[in-house]
Design a protein that fits this description.
The complex is a heterodimer of chains A (about 325) and B (about 300). With about 325 residues, chain A is α/β, with parallel strands linked by helices. Chain A contains eleven helices and 15 strands. The model of chain B has no long low-confidence stretch (mean pLDDT about 95). The chains are: A alpha/beta (about 325), B alpha/beta (about 300). Chains A and B meet through helix 4, helix 5, helix 7, strand 10 and strand 11 of A and helix 5, helix 6, helix 7, strand 7 and helix 8 of B.
């Protein structure tokens, strides 16, 4: 059966990789245990041996493996990024996901046969940006930044004729990816260079009366009343005072879910759907991937959405969902 | 490595949505009075604002040039529309030098020399080389870099010109969503240009009342003012050739004079900090990134011996 849309799934750990493959992923993406990928959290990611086994497991079941080397190489310290590219190539990754000009340059020159996917961290938001990356580095696919409306995605694919991958489900950043310094402004650790946003060692929760205060470093990100679910203190999802009024200025703690838009995205020419969540549990990955597999198979056969589609509501971050930038009113 | 004596002061684009008379008066004073070598004009944050003032730009540019200043045109941080693309093409066709803030611009600049702006990710020497090979003649360091990282890149920078953001609220993020509109219960498509209400940005505080960010339409900036006078000598010695002052409503001619005096060695950093504090307080100074710390922090210089 021809895939309706390719399903690209998160593999934060070897166990999650196997869960995603078993649940029907067309591809999984993962990273090494260091600053070279944008989910550099303790307990996540792969050492070289685990990646080798993971690739063997996936390939034996017809699933591709993309390796994210998608942070920005630090001045005077190219070694980790070079090793990540070298090892991903040597271990047989089907593509590497890259954002940095320097890493793209190195990979394109050293491994001309290795497929390059342009990471969302590069935030290529126009046909002009995509053409630059394709002509300069020969990228095969772009993961589109989460700032475009569906009709803009359609126009962009029409003008570039490139494989486009879009985020379908999971956490939603509100800033242009790869150029957001809110977390380093507060903690000193950089999402761009260290691969970590709102690092756990800077997070604290404190009860004050019957409320719960969440902090990142010394900065109060939110205060939850007794009836409110507490959210992780990501700076772009905090509650702040503006004109003396507490509001979610940037975004609410809310998850992205594009299931109702899948037909539109397909019609727009999108090649692949990306499920966010390398930091999520194996059980979560199993459930989301399995449900998306069932949905995409139904759509491919011209059938209505299966009943499982509704079950994903409430699984998203904060238990609430948004179409994000795909719907124009978001801006 | 550049000669420290030749350090240049630049004036970044006005990041905020100022009314035309204020813009014209501002640049008239800069042309006549400020010891600024290079002025960046244009709109880097939200291209919806450009029609309000673009008709004035040729005259402003001419006046600045008559005053002996280099003029470079800044371009948007995020390019998604045909109008934005056409605007960049028109600048290049007119023979202007542009500052790029979205790598999409590299699609047009081919063969033409350009300035890489502070919103371009240049964290490593190889990225710097890619920009140089595409025609960069000056490269701005991202604001997130430490002094050691800046020094590494400046030493390697074969474009010959390295610029550092040295004064003003520090750009931290850009979005497609307009937070100014959102703060007024509006959407970007019908924003009523409420960003014009806050000429230095809209204060955003923690729930305990402590100011944290300043919002400027789709852009988020630091609340504190980046003040780098303590580090100018070190950065000059490391090969930084250009220091950028970002326009605010305080007296920028005065600010430029203070920075020029520190660069020329006629004013101590301590005295400069004191004079700047008189104009900026109670808003705090920040310089954390330069010291490889959280950007919002301030690390005073070690006492000189």
């Amino acid at each position: 059966m021809k895939a309706y849309l390719e399903l690209v799934c998160p593999a934060g750990t070897p166990a999650a990789l196997r869960a995603a493959v078993d649940a029907g992923a067309d591809a999984v993406y993962c990273g090494f245990q260091d600053c070279t990928n944008a989910r550099n959290y303790p307990g996540l990611n792969f050492d070289r041996h685990e990646l080798k086994s993971g690739i063997a497991y996936a390939h034996a079941r017809g699933c591709r493996v993309f390796v994210a080397v998608n942070t920005f190489a630090r001045a005077g310290d190219f070694g980790p990024w070079q090793r990540a590219v070298d090892d991903a190539a040597a271990l047989g990754a089907d593509a590497i996901i890259v954002a940095d000009l320097g890493v793209l340059d190195y990979a394109a020159r050293t491994y001309p046969q290795l497929r390059l996917h342009l990471s969302v961290q590069a935030a290529a938001a126009s046909a002009f940006a995509i053409r630059f990356y394709r002509e300069t580095f020969g990228i095969s696919r772009v993961i589109l930044p989460r700032v475009l409306a569906v009709e803009e995605i359609a126009a962009l694919i029409g003008q570039t004729d490139i494989e486009a991958e879009v985020f379908a489900f999971g956490s939603l950043g509100t800033m242009v990816e790869g150029r957001c310094y809110l977390s380093s402004y507060i903690t000193g650790r950089s999402p761009s260079m260290d691969g970590v946003c709102a690092p756990a060692e800077h997070v604290s929760y404190q009860e004050e009366g019957n409320c719960l205060v969440s902090r990142l470093g010394e900065v109060m990100i939110n205060l939850f009343g007794p009836d409110e679910p507490a959210a992780y203190p990501t700076p772009c999802k905090g509650r702040y005072l503006v004109h003396g009024r507490p509001i979610y200025l940037f975004e609410e703690p809310i998850g992205l879910n594009v299931i109702p838009l899948l037909a539109e995205l397909k019609a727009a020419g999108v090649t692949a759907l990306k499920i966010e969540g390398r930091q999520r549990s194996r059980a979560y990955v199993s459930k989301i991937v399995g449900t998306f597999r069932a949905i995409l198979d139904s759509l491919a056969q011209g059938k209505p959405l299966p009943a499982e589609a509704a079950e994903l509501a409430g699984v998203a971050e904060g238990g609430r969902e948004t179409f994000g930038a795909y719907a124009r009113g978001w801006r | 490595m550049s000669n420290p004596a030749k350090s240049r002061l630049t004036l970044g684009p006005i990041l905020f949505h100022w009314p035309n008379p204020r813009r014209r008066d501002f640049y008239a004073r800069i042309a006549d009075e400020a010891p600024i070598d290079c002025v960046y004009l244009g709109e880097a944050v939200c291209s919806k604002r450009l029609p309000w003032f673009e008709e004035d730009l040729p005259e402003i540019a001419a006046r600045l040039r008559r005053a002996g200043k280099e003029v470079i045109f800044s371009t948007p941080a995020l390019i998604t529309t045909e109008q934005e693309a056409a605007g960049i093409q028109a600048l290049l066709d007119a023979g202007e030098t542009i500052e790029i803030n979205d790598l999409a611009c590299l699609h047009w600049v081919r063969g033409k020399r350009f300035v890489s702006g502070p919103l371009i990710n240049v964290f490593h020497e190889r990225a710097l080389d890619v920009l140089r090979n595409h025609g960069a003649r000056r490269v701005n360091m991202p604001v997130e870099l430490s002094a050691a990282q800046i020094a590494t890149l400046a030493r390697h920078n074969r474009t010959g010109e390295t610029e550092v953001f040295a004064f003003g609220r520090q750009p931290l993020a850009i979005s497609q969503r307009c937070y100014h509109a959102r703060a007024h219960n509006l959407h970007k498509d019908n924003c009523q240009f409420v960003c014009g209400l806050d000429a230095d940005g809209l204060e955003v505080s923690e729930l305990n009342g402590r100011a944290l960010f300043a919002v400027n339409g789709t852009q988020t900036l630091s609340h504190g003012f980046l003040v780098l006078v303590d580090a100018l000598a070190e950065l000059q010695a490391a090969g930084v050739s250009h220091f950028r002052l970002s326009p605010h409503t305080l007296d920028m001619v005065e600010v430029a004079g203070i920075y020029r005096a520190v660069l020329d060695g006629t004013c101590s950093a301590d005295e400069a900090n004191a004079r700047l504090a008189e104009r900026i307080a109670p808003i705090p100074f920040i310089n954390g990134y330069l010291h490889a710390r959280a950007g919002r922090e301030w690390q005073p210089a070690r006492p000189s011996t």
